[in-house]
Amino acid sequence: MAANKGFFSTQPPAPPAQVKGLTFTSVGSSQAMPCSGYSYGEVQRFFVTNPCQALTRSLFEVTNDSGRRMLVAVSWTQMPDPTRAGELKRLADRSGTGNVAELSREVPRYSSTKFTGNAYDSHIDGSTTVIAQAEPLAGNPDSALLRRTARAGLQAPRPTD
Length: 161
Hints:
Blueprint: E1 7-8, E2 17-19, E3 22-31, E4 39-40, H1 41-49, E5 54-63, E6 69-78, H2 82-93, E7 98-100, E8 120-125, E9 128-138, H3 143-153
């Protein structure tokens, strides 16, 4: 990773949010630049030639009504225009091409959680590429629940720091 030119939020966390029947509790957020310093693989190389304008990453503990606990990593990458946002989405959506580095890598409590990309979703919002991934924190939630949780992560509250 490049020298940290962003920050990890120390503000009190936002209250839990309900998204598609799941409870999202923020456990951290970070605004960091340059994007190439907070990414890996082909995605990192993409950022070297296509710098982003802003990067926000968040981490959420998520529970469903059965008490299943999952960790969701969400990133909002502001690109210069919708075309480049689409290029980033198409690249990150391909398996094995890398991604924006999940904030869990920098939070000791969650650093052992490895995001596999099996529960992954993304979308474009104007010039912003939003990427969400989910992994279990406890128990063994089925893959359909993890995929639904990643999809819901696209609508998780974006930090305003």
